[in-house]
Amino acid sequence: MQIQRIQTVYLIITIILIGMFCTSSLGSLTVEESITQIMVKDYPVLLIVGIATAVLLLINIFLFKNLRLQKRVTLISMLLMATLCVSALFIIYGAVPGAQMLWVGGVLILIGAMLFALLAYNGMKKDEKKLRDSDRIR
Q1: Calpha distance 14→112 (Å, rounded)
Q2: Pairing relation of β-strands 99-101 and 34-39?
Q3: By C-alpha distance, which of 77, 80, 81, 69 is closest to 124?
């Protein structure tokens, strides 16, 4: 079996990255000389939205017959990832006073996931252009 569409690979990588985000650390908090990691699993809203985004992208892989719907779902998932990123930043800097952001943690993973989702969206646009061109030739 061979995957013919590169955007499927990009969507799978995006799902893996979102799964890594759900298990990663957002930052660290130093209280009385002890360092506490701030994890995504400690904030259920972030965890639920992250899992929902991953499930949405998994469903998106199987929408290849309806390219317009697949593009919309990809855009919605990218919006959810951007919301997750902003929410994580607000949690670190607003809700937890004295916390420091770990830039090797969850936020960079989300940015990478958004990049791969964007690559998948561009692949879908190329497929749509090829379909329009082939319909025009007929």
Answers
A1: 8
A2: unpaired
A3: 69
Is residue 23 within 8 A of residue 83, CB to CB? The reply is no
Do the beta carbons of residue 37 and residue 25 sit within 8 Å? yes
Instruction: Read off the DSSP letter of residue 111.
Output: H
> In the numeric block, which tokens belong to residue 38?
């701030």
pLDDT per residue rounded down to tens, the chain (138 residues): 344 678 899 999 999 999 999 998 887 766 666 677 778 888 899 899 999 999 999 999 998 888 889 999 999 999 999 999 888 888 777 766 766 666 667 788 999 999 999 999 999 888 888 877 776 666
Residue 64, SS3 per DSSP: coil
Q: How many Å apart are CA 27 and CA 97, to the nearest integer?
A: 12
Distances 115 to 26, 74, 75, 83 between C-alpha atoms, Å: 19, 12, 12, 15
